[in-house]
Design a protein that fits this description.
Length: 307
């Protein structure tokens, strides 16, 4: 069943969009990530213009992250104070990102920027995640299936000024690193149409040294507001949010997330991470090939005003 997307100006099979939304929803439920870093490239592959894919996917992440946040609030695994500090940085980053996005769009370079950002970030994140997962599996085998105890690190984060106590996380650290992490994620949300969970979660664990149990919930809290703000800016400045596309992806995503959560419970954390890493590297490879290989049609005919 073909459906015309008015903002994207293309016709796409509605069931294909529902299926993509469902598939990314399953991944979201399994791995605890928003899925935007996979969904946006998949939208490129089916012919959605990058500018529309970025703005619309940010819209979908708001709803999927909100449903996840409610579950974490019930379990009391959200550090609201840390979430607000990350959010301040996130809103600043989102404003900067949308400004850069609009400037490059006016130069006609935004599609190239978005694709290059995806190739670089997915390549780095996928490779690091794959190596780390292999090490974790090897250690588990050597220790007879018992995870080795983690040592507490006291790094440069504790030496910086403007310290604040984060009771839920059990931390007393400077607000500067969380704000910097928030700014980076805000910029990525605006330029790449992602929630930034694939950067935020590792940063919260390895840089801020937050307990793993509160990381995902706190990340979702920040992502909701940053992506909502990003969507609003894109909708009012670029007019690139396609609601028909967003609704179909959202319906599929909500159903898929429920299935993914059940699958995720049955798999070990190391197995989940290595599966996600492989998937990220495959998507990265496809995007890189699309950029490097000569397209079938070297020229496209666009409408010229007045002709």
């Amino acid at each position: 069943m073909q459906i015309y997307l008015p903002i994207a100006e293309v016709s796409v099979n509605a069931f294909l969009l529902l299926g993509l939304g469902g598939m990314v929803g399953v991944l979201s439920g399994m791995f605890g990530v928003g899925g935007g870093f996979l969904m946006t490239p998949l939208l490129f592959f089916i012919g959605i213009p990058p500018a529309v894919a970025v703005a619309t996917e940010a819209n979908q992440i708001v709803a999927s992250s909100f449903s996840g946040l409610l579950a974490h609030l019930k379990r009391k695994t959200v550090d609201l104070r840390m979430g607000v500090v990350l959010l301040i940085g996130g809103l600043i980053g989102a404003a900067v990102g949308v400004f850069v996005f609009n400037y490059l769009k006016s130069l006609g370079q935004v599609d190239l920027l978005v694709r290059l950002c995806y190739v670089v970030f997915l390549g780095i994140i996928g490779a690091l995640m794959f190596i780390e997962s292999l090490r974790a599996i090897r250690k588990m085998r050597q220790s007879g299936g018992v995870a080795p105890a983690k040592r507490k690190h006291r790094g440069w984060v504790t030496a910086l000024p403007f310290k604040m106590r984060f009771r839920t996380s059990g931390l007393y650290i400077s607000v500067i690193p969380p704000i910097m992490v928030g700014v980076l994620v805000g910029i990525l949300a605006a330029i790449m149409g992602v929630g930034g969970g694939f950067i935020m979660v590792p940063a919260m664990i390895y840089i801020l040294h937050m307990p793993t149990k509160v990381v995902v919930g706190t990340s979702l809290f920040q992502i909701i507001f940053v992506t909502a703000f990003t969507t609003l800016l894109h909708a009012t400045t670029n007019f690139t949010v396609d609601m028909a596309l967003a609704v179909l992806l959202l319906v599929g995503g909500v159903i898929g997330a429920q299935i993914g959560t059940r699958i995720g419970v049955k798999l070990k954390a190391e197995q989940l991470r290595i599966l996600l890493a492989i998937l990220v590297l495959v998507v990265c490879g496809k995007l890189a090939l699309d950029l490097l290989l000569q397209p079938g049609e070297l020229y496209s005919i666009g409408d010229v005003e007045g002709h």
